[in-house]
Amino acid sequence: MYHPNEIGAPLLDPFTGLPNRRGLRLCLAEEYGRARNLQVPLAILAIDLDRFAEVNERYFLPGGDAVIAEVARVLSSSARASDFVARDGGDQFSVVMVETTSEAARLQADRMRQAIALTSIELRNESVSVTASIGIASATFTEADPWDLFRRARRAVHRAKDLVGNQVAVG
C-alpha cells in the first residue's frame, strides 16, 4: 500500500503534507486492483467540511488554512495504520481503507467525524470548531474503474451534506 512517507513531492499536498489527489488516484488504483485480485473488501471515505465557506469569510484565508491544517492532523491521527489519508483539495479529504468492510468503514467514519467535531481551533482569540460530512463507498468490483468508487463516495458525501451536515452517508 502507498504510504505518505513513501511518495514523492509531486504527489504531496504542500500545505498539509498529505498525499494530493494525484497520490490518491495512484493509491486507489493500486489498492483496488489488489483487493479485486485477492477478493478482499475495500472502502473509501470522502470527507467535506461543513460550512467551511463561513470560516473563510469570517477569518479569511489564514483562518481557513489553520482549520484545514488541523483537520488534516486530526484525520491522520485518527486513521488506522492501514488507512491512506489524502487531501483532494480545498476542504475535501479522502481515506482509502484496505481490507475494510462497509460496517467497519462506517464505524471508522463516525470516529473521524466525532474527532473533527471535538477539535477546537484558536482563531483571533476565539475557539472555532467545524463539523464534517462523510460519504462511504465500498468496492463491488463491478465498477468501470477504481475512480467510479471515488465518485460514489463523493455522491454520498453530498447526500450527507444535504442532511444538514455532520452526517455519514453510504453510497
Describe the structure.
The protein contains four helices and seven strands, in the order H-E-H-E-E-H-E-E-E-H-E. With about 170 residues, it is an alpha+beta fold. The protein has one domain: Alpha-Beta Plaits, CATH 3.30.70. A five-stranded mixed β-sheet has the order 2-3-1-6-7, sandwiched between helices. Helix 2 packs across helix 3. The longest helix has 27 residues. The model has no long low-confidence stretch (mean pLDDT about 95).
Q: How far from one another are the termini? A: 24 Å
| Beta-strand segment tally | 7
User: DSSP strand (E) fraction?
Assistant: 15-25%
Point out poorly predicted stretches.
none
Helix content: 40-55%
Task: Describe the sheet with the most strands.
Answer: 5 strands, mixed
Helices and strands, in order, run as HEHEEHEEEHE
CATH superfamily: Reverse transcriptase/Diguanylate cyclase domain
Please identify the structural class as seen in this structure. Answer: alpha+beta
Cα shape: globular
**Which strand order spans the largest sheet, edge to edge or round the barrel?**
2-3-1-6-7
Mean pLDDT across all amino acids? 93
The first-level CATH class is given as: Alpha Beta
CATH architecture assignment = 2-Layer Sandwich
